[in-house]
Design a protein that fits this description.
It catalyses: Hydrolysis of proteins in presence of ATP. The protein is of the alpha+beta class. The chain has two domains: 177 residues, Ribosomal Protein S5, domain 2; 91 residues, Roll (Pdz3 Domain), CATH 2.30.42.10. It is 33% helix and 31% strand. The protein is built from nine helices and 17 strands. The strands form five sheets. Strands 4-1-3-13-16-17 form a six-stranded mixed sheet, sandwiched between helices. A five-stranded antiparallel sheet has the order 8-7-6-5-11. Strands 2-12 form a two-stranded antiparallel ribbon. Helix 4 runs parallel beside helix 6 and helix 7 packs across helix 8. The chain starts with a helix and ends with a helix. The model has no long low-confidence stretch (mean pLDDT 90).
Length: 335
């Protein structure tokens, strides 16, 4: 009888262990890492001098039943559904979108640094990358993620905003022809325009990002490896700038930060900044650049970053930035 109960208890313990460690459909966003920008940025014939710029990341973990339950009691750990994380697209498509965003972010980072140092560069507009197609779009069966739209109705455009402006001038359900580059082939797709729910304007129902070719002299390359998304733009730009000028901007300080960047030098909001503050502090950063743009919970990234630092009683200084120049001016005016 005792042996029977021993077996039953053992089986219950095993079943409980399996249940607790069984993966859920949720993910956990946790503090990631602070990575030396110099590992990713290279400008030909330039050396890195005292480069101590750090980009910061948010870690993503698949949640088990146990870790999902424990996350309710943990600081700076956020549970998100698969749909919230990926926007409802497949994992493969999500990764592809993140790679597109990262490539655009890298190009914008390089452009900013080259502009600021009056260094030669040329950015050619090639078309728009298709990231995602609305299920209500007339092109949902024909357009694919990764396609590049190079023209519409025989017209070619100098920038994405011109393409969007042209389509929005058309009538709803108007027949159009798209010129599309798919891998190494050019194809033509026909379909109709639609009214976009988000804006009420006429469109084709796709999420787009610029497809550009950047030519620089000297050549600059950013290889972010497995890091995706656009949030390292500001820190990449500072890294490229420092290599071009050979200036010592850090003066021995560890400078961490985050923020998207566009070709005009504007720094945009990102997600998970509280987790990035933790990652930067754990790496020993003395300064953290935070976008002064609205992010989560109707707070600016800077406000949430500062709140996180105060709650954790960190000595790391949180510095608000709206532009690339804000970050540069801070570095040059402080030691």
């Amino acid at each position: 009888m005792r042996r029977r109960w021993t077996v039953i208890i053992a089986l219950l313990i095993i079943a409980l262990g399996v249940f607790l460690n069984y993966p859920t459909s949720y993910y956990l966003e946790v503090p990631g890492s602070a990575e030396d920008v110099a590992k990713f940025v290279k400008v030909d014939n330039k050396t890195v001098k005292n480069n101590q710029f750090y980009l910061t990341t948010v870690g993503i973990k698949k949640a088990t039943n146990l870790s999902l339950f424990l996350s309710r009691f943990q600081s700076h750990v956020t549970a998100v559904s698969s749909e919230e994380l990926t926007g409802g697209v497949s994992d493969e498509q999500y990764l592809k979108v993140q790679q597109f965003f990262m490539q655009n972010s890298q190009n914008a980072a390089i452009v900013n640094a080259y502009k600021k140092t009056n260094t030669s560069y040329d950015q050619k507009y090639l078309g728009v990358n298709v990231l995602q197609v609305d299920e209500r779009s007339h092109f949902v069966q024909s357009l694919k993620s990764g396609d590049v739209i190079t023209g519409i109705d025989g017209r070619h455009f100098g920038q994405t905003s011109d393409l969007i402006q042209y389509v929005s001038s058309l009538d709803e359900n108007q027949q159009i022809k798209l010129e599309v580059k798919r891998s190494d082939k050019t194809i033509e797709l026909s379909g109709k325009t639609m009214k976009l729910q988000a804006t009420g304007k006429v469109g084709i129902g796709v999420s787009l990002v610029d497809e550009t070719q950047l030519i620089t002299d000297p050549k600059a390359k950013i290889d972010a490896g497995s890091i995706g998304g656009p949030s390292a733009g500001l820190m990449f730009s500072l890294g490229v700038y420092q290599q071009l000028t050979q200036e010592d901007l850090t003066h021995g300080r560890k400078i961490a930060g985050t923020g998207t960047i566009d070709t005009d030098g504007n720094v945009g909001a990102i997600g998970g900044i509280d987790k990035k503050v933790v990652a930067a502090s754990d790496a020993g950063a003395q300064v953290f650049f935070a976008p002064e743009a609205t992010g989560e919970n109707d707070m600016t990234n800077y406000e949430l970053a500062k709140k996180t630092a105060e709650e954790m009683n960190l000595s790391m200084k949180i510095v608000p930035v709206k532009t690339f120049d804000d970050a540069l001016n801070y570095l040059k005016s402080t030691v």
